[in-house]
TrEMBL record:
It comes from Phormidium tenue NIES-30. It comes from the Bacteria. This is Branched-chain-amino-acid aminotransferase. It catalyses: L-valine + 2-oxoglutarate = 3-methyl-2-oxobutanoate + L-glutamate; L-leucine + 2-oxoglutarate = 4-methyl-2-oxopentanoate + L-glutamate; L-isoleucine + 2-oxoglutarate = (S)-3-methyl-2-oxopentanoate + L-glutamate. Keywords: Amino-acid biosynthesis, Aminotransferase, Branched-chain amino acid biosynthesis, Pyridoxal phosphate, Transferase.
Length: 304
C-alpha cells in the first residue's frame, strides 16, 4: 500500500485524500478518456525548508496538451497554480510523486469527447525508487507500441496504458523486471513507462519522436545535459539487435530517473557504464538543486 499525501485536489477544491471519490459510472473509467502527469518533488536537501519540483513548467504544459487532445481546455497556468497550492497544503517531508489527472467526469454512456463533462484532480504519494538503481533486466515485449494514427501519442493518455500494463506483466511473469516495446516498424520505441537510451562507441543514441515515443521530460533533460557535457547525441531509429550489443542501455523517466539495464532478453550487458553513471550523477545533482547551471529547471516552493 502506498503512503498517500493527506490532501488532494478534487472537483475544484482541496479535501482529504480519502474523501476524493468518483462514481462507478465515471465516463473515463470505461473509455480510458483521461490523461495524467507525473512529477517528483523533494524537500530541499540543502535544508532550506523548501520543496523542489523538477521542470514543473514542462510537466504542466504536457498535461495541458494532453487535455487539449481530449477536447478539454485546461491552461498550464491553472494546473501549475493548483500544484503549487497542493504542495503547500501537504508540506511533504519525504521524496514524493504528484499525479495530476484530467478526465471525462460525466456519468453518461457512449465513448466521445464532445458534450461530456471534464474534470481535473491532483493527488500525491511518497515515492522512493521505482526501479532498482542497481539495474534491471528487460524483455522485448510481444506487444507493440501504439501508432499515432490510432492514438495521440503526444499526450499521456490513460487508455494507452493498457499496452504498458500488458507489456510489464508479460515481462515480470516471465522473470524480467521491465519491458521494452518495439513500434509497428519493428524499431525500438520505449519501455512500459520510460524512454530508452543506448550507448555505442561513446555516442548516446535514443529513438526520435517519429518512433512513437512519449515526449519524456527526463529524456529531454538528458539530451540537453549530455550535449552540454560534450557527449555526442544522436536521435535515430534503434534496431532490436543494437540493444543486445550496446555498450550501455538505460531507461529514463520521472519515476525511474536513470535506471541502468543489466540484461536484455538473454544478453548480459557490460557492468561498466561510464556514460550512464556520468549522466545519472549530473541529473541527481540538478534535481537536488546543487547545479547552478540548471537552476531554472528546479522550481522551489516556500512552505512559509
Ligand atoms: N514513456 C512512457 C510511456 C511514460 O509513461 C513515461 C513516464 N511519464 C515516460 C516515457 C518518461 O517520461 P518522463 O520522463 O516525462 O517521466
Amino acid at each position: 500500500m502506498h503512503n498517500f499525501l493527506p490532501v488532494a485536489y478534487f472537483e475544484g477544491q482541496f479535501c482529504d485524500f480519502s474523501d476524493a471519490k468518483i462514481s462507478i459510472a465515471t465516463h473515463a473509467l470505461h473509455y480510458g478518456t483521461g490523461a495524467f502527469g507525473g512529477l517528483r518533488g523533494i524537500p530541499d536537501p540543502a535544508g532550506s525548508g523548501r520543496i523542489l519540483l523538477f521542470r514543473l513548467d514542462r510537466h504542466c504544459q504536457r498535461l495541458s496538451t494532453s487535455a487539449r487532445l481530449l477536447n478539454y481546455d485546461l491552461p498550464a497556468d491553472k494546473i501549475r497554480a493548483v500544484i503549487e497550492d497542493f504542495v503547500r497544503k501537504n508540506s511533504p517531508d519525504k521524496s514524493f510523486y504528484i499525479r495530476p489527472f484530467v478526465y471525462t467526469s460525466d456519468l453518461g454512456i457512449s465513448p466521445r469527447l464532445h458534450n461530456v463533462e471534464k474534470s481535473f484532480f491532483v493527488y500525491g504519494l511518497e515515492l522512493g525508487d521505482y526501479l532498482s538503481p542497481e539495474g534491471v533486466t528487460c524483455r522485448i515485449s510481444s506487444w507493440y507500441r501504439q501508432e499515432d494514427r490510432s492514438l495521440p501519442l503526444r499526450g499521456k493518455i490513460s487508455g494507452a496504458y493498457i499496452t504498458s500494463s500488458l507489456a510489464k506483466t508479460e515481462a515480470v511473469e516471465s522473470g524480467f523486471d521491465e519491458s521494452i516495446l518495439m513500434n509497428s516498424q519493428g524499431k525500438v520505441s520505449e519501455a512500459s513507462g520510460m524512454n530508452v537510451f543506448i550507448v555505442r562507441h561513446g555516442k548516446l543514441i535514443t529513438p526520435g519522436y517519429e518512433q512513437d515515443i512519449l515526449e519524456g521530460i527526463t529524456r529531454d533533460s538528458i539530451l540537453t545535459v549530455a550535449r552540454n557535457l560534450g557527449i555526442e547525441v544522436v536521435e535515430r531509429p534503434v534496431d532490436k539487435s543494437e540493444l543486445l550489443i550496446a555498450d550501455e542501455v538505460f531507461l529514463s523517466g520521472t519515476a525511474a530517473k536513470i535506471t541502468p539495464v543489466r540484461k536484455v532478453e538473454s544478453y548480459n550487458l557490460p557492468t561498466s557504464r561510464p556514460v550512464t553513471d556520468r549522466l545519472r550523477e549530473k541529473l541527481t545533482a540538478i534535481t537536488e538543486g546543487r547545479d547552478d547551471d540548471y537552476k531554472d529547471w528546479v522550481f522551489a516552493i516556500d512552505l512559509g
